[in-house]
């Protein structure tokens, strides 16, 4: 059962990585406009001013 | 004038060389409403149209909010972007950023972060717990308990804050709410589990139960918050659309200024159809729509030098006004302030959730205490007695019970939102379900406001005026007054047929002002233009009154207008109970009397004279066209023009109440099975996990099904 010494930290670390990614998306404002992001995937090219408006002031009130 | 900062400004010429007060320093975002965008092509169209403008630093569309966030280049304002958008065929309105600001969704983001942490911890602890449940050996089990504790305690310390905060507030105020049993369960589960981990006695630990409780409840709370935040931000947008700007006359020309900057003595120009932002003196003759303040549907003629109150709408021709009072001191603002006072009264309504908690918490806490006392006195084993009490608290799933109501409220509020009804108050849905009487304001609610003539071509208007002046019939006189801004045309062969109308010749061809099926009609060579002088019922008004009466609601009309006008409309819509000529204060009194009679009244109104009634009613709705004060005073705003939304809201509210009761019954059923098992000391963490998840999922599914 000594393998657990490795496995448990690994599983927790993987989970923590997922959590960190989730918190990053949250802070990056990726849940602000779910409907719009779903529609944007249909656009052929990325419009010339992409996240520019968002990233300058991340905590933009919507 | 400052030197333009970029080559684009120099190229664009004087239009952008004088930034107005509205122009912002670089970095301040401007919000623009795009009410008609709905797809990917719209997003691309808007962003591409703005991409190469020198006055735009960045622009991004939010499709969910139907809003554009625009960062103007330094020294520029939004005027060019708006012009370009209009030219590209997009309806675009500037929003007042200060009215939007308080709707920032910081709270939603925090809830989501807490839920994410609780979910992560729950999954890890459960993965470890599965090994314990399936019979891990002595040392392994103990190590797993330590691992669980190391994950669970910090996670709980972060995630469970909202429950502890709310429970503390409730207990300090001597009240009971759903968060008290939840906080108790989490706290007890964490402390006893920690004790077991230290003692290494091999008894059950409940870390996973505490975490999953936290996780499910946070998800429920987030969904509920989101539904309400969307509705509220949409309501705030209505306010933000009414830009507090006015056109001021100066010695050199006209300038656009904030309404707050207007001083007594300033002269401002109001376009036809504009609402006066301040009190003032009219410099010329005008016709006013006072219905927002009084409910009277008759336009009021005004001579030069007469007083105009804030909130009145200028009809007919543009009017120049000398400001007599600053915006903050104006009639409208002072009356609106009264509403805010009245509004606070209703927050004392306690929702079904709190009432359920008041019933549930003592039962559960009593049972847990009873189990503890029984086991302790019977076996003398304090440790076992505490374990049983903890298991009872956890397994009685406050989870399903706490989700039972928010899940339904969130689902139904969302459905109403898509139907164009924004509910702002958390308990509005429940109060709507209790309604048995619906009171409608007349002018602006049941009807489309003051009767207005359609925009006539210049020639037609002058012919109509000449014809109308030839008769002394009240309808003709009213028409002539409404058309006073036009010069009468030269007519020949004028003759009046009593009861039918006036006929004449104009440039040799016959013209008539004749009685039509829906009021007077103007007959010109080759066309007939109806000139409605009676107010038209709003779309769906007849259907909604019939539907409501059919569903057993008492329908009442309440208006500040004259009894004669009210009667006509009431007969047409089939409303039996009419109170006409009621002043604003009496409207509120009448509603208070109805409440004393035990009636739960839904007030639907739009004017300033309705605000007292809206704030005092059991529940209230306002159309989007209502005055801001009326929208603030009511629980909900109807975005569409169709009045049938009232009946739909009431039906949905009743359905929501039925669902809530089903959910409460489901949760009770689960408890009826789980409690005896727990009290007898047979509950295990595995059982708690299964019961908690399955019951939570069941109530959520029941809430979202159609």
TrEMBL record, chain A:
Region ranges (Disordered): 43-62
InterPro entries found in the cross-reference section: Cyt_oxidase_maturation_cbb3
Transmembrane segments: none
Descriptive protein name: Transcriptional regulator FixK
Organism: Pseudooceanicola batsensis (strain ATCC BAA-863 / DSM 15984 / KCTC 12145 / HTCC2597) (Oceanicola batsensis)
TrEMBL record, chain B:
The organism's place on the tree of life at top rank: Bacteria
Keyword Ion transport in record: yes
Record InterPro entries: ATPase_P-typ_cyto_dom_N, ATPase_P-typ_P_site, ATPase_P-typ_TM_dom_sf, ATPase_P-typ_transduc_dom_A_sf, ATPase_P-type_domA, HAD-like_sf, HAD_sf, Heavy-metal-associated_CS
Residue ranges occupied by any HMA domain in the UniProt entry: 28-93
TM annotation in the entry: 111-134, 146-171, 178-198, 204-223, 359-378, 384-408, 664-680
Any one GO BP annotation for this protein: copper ion homeostasis
Any one GO CC term of the record: plasma membrane
Keywords: Cell membrane, Ion transport, Magnesium, Membrane, Metal-binding, Phosphoprotein, Translocase, Transmembrane, Transmembrane helix, Transport
Main location: membrane
Pfam family, one: HMA
Topology in the lipid bilayer: Multi-pass membrane protein
GO molecular function: ATP binding; ATP hydrolysis activity; copper ion binding; P-type divalent copper transporter activity
Localization terms from the record: Cell membrane
Keyword Membrane: yes
Family from the record: Belongs to the cation transport ATPase (P-type) (TC 3.A.3) family. Type IB subfamily.
Protein name: Copper-translocating P-type ATPase, RdxI
Native source species: Pseudooceanicola batsensis (strain ATCC BAA-863 / DSM 15984 / KCTC 12145 / HTCC2597) (Oceanicola batsensis)
């Amino acid at each position: 059962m000594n393998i657990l010494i490795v496995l448990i930290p690994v599983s927790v670390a993987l989970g923590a990585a997922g959590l960190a990614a989730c918190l990053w998306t949250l802070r990056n404002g990726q849940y602000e406009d779910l409907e719009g992001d779903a529609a944007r995937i249909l656009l052929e090219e990325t419009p010339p001013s992409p996240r520019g408006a968002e990233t300058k002031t991340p905590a933009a009130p919507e | 004038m400052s030197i333009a900062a970029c080559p684009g400004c120099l190229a664009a010429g004087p239009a952008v060389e004088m930034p107005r007060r509205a122009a912002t320093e670089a970095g301040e975002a401007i919000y623009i409403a795009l009410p008609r965008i709905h797809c990917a092509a719209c997003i691309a169209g808007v962003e591409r149209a703005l991409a190469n403008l020198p006055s735009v630093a960045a622009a991004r569309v939010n499709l969910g909010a139907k809003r554009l966030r625009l960062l103007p280049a330094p020294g520029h304002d939004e005027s060019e972007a708006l012009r370009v958008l209009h030219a590209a065929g997009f309806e675009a309105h500037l929003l007042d950023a200060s009215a939007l600001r308080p709707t920032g969704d910081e709270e939603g983001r925090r809830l989501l972060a807490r839920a994410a942490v609780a979910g992560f911890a729950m999954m890890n602890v459960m993965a470890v717990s599965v090994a314990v449940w399936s019979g891990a050996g002595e040392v392994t089990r103990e190590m797993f308990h330590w691992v669980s504790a190391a994950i669970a305690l910090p996670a709980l310390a972060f995630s469970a804050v909202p429950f502890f905060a709310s429970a503390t507030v409730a207990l300090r105020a001597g009240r009971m709410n759903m968060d008290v049993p939840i906080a108790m369960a989490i706290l007890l589960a964490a402390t006893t589990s920690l004790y077991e981990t230290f003692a290494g006695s091999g008894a059950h630990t409940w870390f996973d139960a505490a975490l999953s409780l936290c996780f499910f409840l946070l998800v429920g709370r987030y969904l509920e918050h989101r539904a309400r935040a969307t509705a509220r931000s949409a309501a705030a947008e209505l306010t933000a659309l009414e830009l507090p700007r006015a056109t001021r006359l100066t010695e050199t020309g006209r300038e656009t200024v904030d309404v707050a900057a207007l001083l007594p003595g300033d002269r401002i120009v109001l376009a036809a159809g504009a609402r006066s932002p301040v009190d003032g003196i009219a410099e010329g003759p005008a016709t006013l729509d006072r219905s927002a303040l009084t409910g009277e549907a008759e336009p009021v003629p005004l001579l030069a030098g007469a007083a105009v109150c804030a909130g009145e709408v200028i009809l007919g021709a543009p009017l120049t006004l000398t400001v007599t009072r600053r915006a903050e001191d104006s009639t409208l603002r002072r009356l609106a302030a009264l509403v805010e006072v009245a509004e606070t009264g209703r927050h004392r309504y306690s929702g079904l959730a709190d009432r359920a908690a008041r019933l549930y918490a003592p039962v559960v806490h009593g049972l847990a205490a009873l189990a503890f006392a029984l086991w302790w006195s019977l076996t003398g084993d304090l440790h076992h007695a505490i374990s049983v009490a903890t298991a009872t608290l956890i397994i009685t799933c406050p989870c399903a019970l706490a989700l039972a109501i928010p899940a339904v409220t969130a689902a139904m509020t969302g459905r109403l939102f898509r139907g164009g009804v924004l509910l702002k108050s958390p308990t509005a849905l429940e109060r709507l379900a209790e309604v048995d009487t619906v009171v409608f304001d007349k002018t602006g609610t049941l009807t489309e406001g003051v009767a207005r003539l359609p925009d006539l071509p210049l020639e037609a208007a002058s012919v109509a005026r000449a014809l109308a002046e030839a008769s002394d019939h009240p309808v003709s006189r009213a028409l002539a007054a409404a058309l006073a801004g036009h010069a009468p045309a030269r007519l020949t062969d004028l003759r009046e047929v009593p009861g039918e109308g006036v006929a004449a010749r104009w440039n040799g061809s016959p013209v008539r002002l004749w009685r039509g099926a829906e009021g007077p009609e103007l007959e010109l060579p080759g066309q007939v233009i109806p000139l409605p002088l009676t107010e038209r019922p709003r779309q769906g008004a007849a259907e909604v009154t019939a539907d409501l009466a059919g569903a057993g609601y008492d329908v009442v009309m309440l208006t500040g207008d004259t009894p004669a006008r009210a009667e006509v409309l009431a007969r047409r819509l089939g409303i039996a109970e009419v109170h006409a000529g009621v002043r604003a204060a009496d409207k509120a009194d009448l509603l208070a009397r109805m409440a004393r009679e035990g009636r739960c009244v839904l007030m639907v109104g739009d004017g300033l004279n309705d605000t007292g009634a809206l704030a005092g009613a059991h529940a209230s709705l306002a159309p989007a066209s209502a005055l801001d004060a009326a929208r603030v005073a009511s629980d909900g705003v109807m975005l569409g023009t169709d009045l049938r939304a009232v009946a739909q809201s009431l039906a949905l509210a009743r359905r929501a109440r039925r669902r809530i009761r089903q959910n409460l019954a489901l949760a009770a059923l689960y408890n009826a099975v789980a409690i005896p098992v727990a009290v007898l000391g047979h509950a295990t963490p595995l059982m708690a996990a299964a019961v908690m998840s399955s019951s939570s999922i069941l109530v959520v599914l029941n809430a979202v099904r159609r």
